[in-house]
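Hi C.,

You asked whether I'd gotten around to modeling the 543-residue construct. I have! Everything is below, sequence then structure, no commentary in between.
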Amino acid sequence: MNIKNNIRTALLSAVFAFGATSCNDWLNVEMEDAIMENTLFSDDEGYLSALTGCYIRLNENYDNLLTRGGIDVMAQYYHVSPNTDHAMYKYVAFQYDQLESENDALWTKQYSNIANLNVILEHVANDGKLSEKYYNYVKGECLALRAFLHFDLMRIYGPIYGPDTENKITIPYQDTSSKEIQPLLPAKEVMAKIIRDLEEACKLLETDRVREDGPQGQSVSDEKPTLRYRQFRLNYFATKLLLARVYMWIGDKEKAEAVAKEVINENNKNVKDDQGNTTVFSAFPWVKKSDIDEPKDGNPDRLFSSEVMFAVYDSKRSDFYNSRFASTLNMSAALYFSNWTEKEEGYWGNTYEYSKMTYFMDDVNDLRRKCQWESSKINGGKEGEEWNGYYLSKFRSPEVSSTGTSLTDNSKLNLYMIPLIRLSEAYLIVAECEAEKDNLQEAIDAINQLRLHRNTPNLELTAEDNKESVKAYVTKEFMREVVGEGQLFFYYKRNAMAKVLSDAPCTTIGAWSTTTVIDKEMNLGNYTWPMPKCEMDKRVTKQ
């Protein structure tokens, strides 16, 4: 068995290695041996291994750049020293001319993985060697993942979407393994293809066992991992919510809300046991307060992992944490919330009152505040120079107890998870859509469903509230929910926000609305990355 798996791994590496070096490699490399490819796709195990390889390759962009790293820095989450010495300064300052190699790599890796998915899909369509048991899973997940990768390319390189920009030429939609350079398409056509793939994927995944059994993180005898660990694959729920996210991008809020409500209702459905008793089954249940305050093994569930519908599995997740969020780092490398320190001994008594954290997480009992952030001294880079700051501890690895007890399965899951789609987004989509329709109380109710499970008081609709103020409530909750998950920058872009939360330290004590705390002018042009040089060079050469 081990020999067979080793052979299959070697075949997988050979077939799916193309496209890893330069922007057009994946379009120019012939399969070294067609027999190897045919061997790989000769049975279920080969197909499942190939698809798993595509999920693994998500780490190339989503382990840091499109989650905890560059894209979140561009969202101005963290204080970055205002000088070119900081490792992430070029991101916070939108210096795209200094990001040429990173830009090329992002584009290349995304499209090479898309090419891999197309190879699988073509074999699914033509070989007839994938069993009925796995056909819907493999095809559905391939289509969903292809759409997912293209959508993020659109969110990065496409315009702020709207009636005036939907015909703007953007990116190619690669839905074939052909080595021919594909045409650049208008934004509207790209989005239509993304929706096409997702709608077909949703239909194929209607039989996904996650709907009845949940993610199935524990071992199931005689089952392959495809039917287990569904949080690390584009399962039915994740694909539906991704579709809602896509509808929001193109401004079709009616469809977005309808799909988001489907996800919510399906995730909280009534079921009857053998005795006829009715209970509520949630495939992705809200995190429990006890999982934060009284974790069995001493490790709070910082990711609220039960709510995560889709995540990257990254066995080296701690490496990026140690390079950017560890309290031992100095200011030229660390990503943190800076405190204001001039009045440390003043009326307020301590620096906490001057921290950006006071505004970002304005309720100290908020579960997100309690377990996802920690305060520490920051090395200023000079002898004896220290600053107060707050570090994102959301991705800090769980610790083995002092008694030597092994980590629980849940802790092990958290150890390698980087969330990409989570339950709370469905509620915030509903809230935003209801606010847009001036159904303000309905919007507040949806927000409060989330706040209830974050241990924060209900919002109360006031006479002064209007559509814009309620949408601002949505923004605040979204910011808190997805820190480290790479979604805030795209939220800002979708809403064409000209003012965003500033990365600078606080200078004033006050409420969230204090302009000196949150206001940073955003040039709308900063939301769109330039097309990579490698792609432009390829198209110039073709001409």
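If it helps when you're writing up: The chain has 24 helices and nine strands.

Thanks,
B.
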